[in-house]
Design brief:
The model has no long low-confidence stretch (mean pLDDT about 75). The protein folds into 2 domains: about 240 residues, 2-Layer Sandwich (Beta Polymerase, domain 2), CATH 3.30.460.20; about 70 residues, no CATH class. The chain is α+β, with helices and mostly antiparallel strands.
Length: about 300
């Protein structure tokens, strides 16, 4: 899907899920370098910037949350900037991107030849929209961790899968945005030295937001690790309680087992004789109950001290 928007002197071409045919057509029309074409059609696992060709090229890797799988997916934004045009491509559909395009369409009616018609200002608005979306997404993730913290004591059996998913998501997002820090610095240098110096303030704002994203991810990762440690501690406590109960029960029945073994081997001869079993068995049972009760009281007193 391809959309085109004229903003002042700049033409913005937006392509969702680019294919070879559409990119080859643009390459011929705007004389794009073959390396730029390869970068758009390929998958850039990390963010990158290229200012060496006749076009400025920027690839930024973002993430898109998929609620069905409770995971983040890789979503690449590619940007090509020429004298009076900006071409953007994105792998997965983005509501933030679509909303920005609609907003810019409305603003285009009032924008004349000001700096807001610059391709680099449009680039700033695009990156800013993605960063704002990421910050909101991390806020939702922070709330989810708080809910997991509440559920540890109530629904502890279902918590581990959520913690593992959150941990993997944070690792994925963190490595995705860490690669952008150097890219944003290079982008600021590029804008400052060769193009729109007065736009540097906007891109410094992007740098600040990126730092906030990375810091937030680090904090959420620490929270996730803390919850995982709390979960493991909770499991250890549950396990210790189970072992304690089992030990308590075994301690009660241990002397009874010894007595039963002795009585089973010798009660007809040594203890009662062959004709007194009607009296011996009830007395034997009462004896076992008394010993069991005394053992219970002693063990209870011992465990209460512990």
């Amino acid at each position: 899907m391809q959309k085109t928007l004229q903003i002042g002197k700049t033409q913005w071409i937006f392509i969702h899920t680019p294919d070879k045919e559409s990119i080859d057509k643009l390459a011929q029309e705007y004389d794009l370098h073959e390396m730029v074409v390869d970068n758009i059609l390929g998958v850039n696992a990390q963010s990158k910037i290229d200012t060496s060709s006749n076009h400025f090229f920027l690839a930024l890797t973002f993430t898109k949350y998929e609620p069905e799988w409770s995971k983040y997916l890789f979503n690449e934004l590619d940007v090509i900037i020429g004298d009076n045009h900006i071409i953007t491509t994105i792998g997965l559909e983005s509501q933030s991107f679509n909303k920005l395009f609609e907003d810019m369409s409305k603003e285009a009616e009032t924008i004349d030849g000001s700096y807001k018609s610059s391709p680099y200002y449009i680039l700033y608005r695009i990156i800013d929209a993605f960063y704002n979306k990421t910050i909101k997404s991390l806020a939702v993730s922070s709330e989810k961790l708080l809910n997991i913290q509440t559920d540890i004591g109530e629904k502890w059996k279902d918590v581990v899968d959520e913690l593992i998913n959150e941990d993997l998501n944070k690792i994925f997002i963190k490595h995705n945005f860490l690669s952008q820090q150097e890219i944003i610095d290079d982008l600021i240098d590029h804008v400052n030295k060769f193009h729109e110096k007065h736009l540097t303030t906007y891109f410094n704002n992007l740098k600040t937001k990126l730092s906030k994203i990375v810091r937030t991810i680090n904090v959420l990762t620490e929270k996730n690790d803390s919850l995982m440690a709390a979960y493991n501690t909770f499991l250890s406590i549950k396990s210790n309680k189970s072992v304690t109960r089992l030990t308590f029960v075994n301690s009660i029945f241990m002397p009874l087992t010894v007595i039963a073994g002795i009585g089973g081997m010798s009660e007809r001869s040594m203890m009662t004789g062959p004709h007194n079993w009607r009296i011996a068995y009830p007395l034997f049972i009462v004896w076992c109950l008394i010993i069991a009760y005394i053992t219970y009281l002693l063990l209870r007193k011992f465990f209460m001290k512990k």
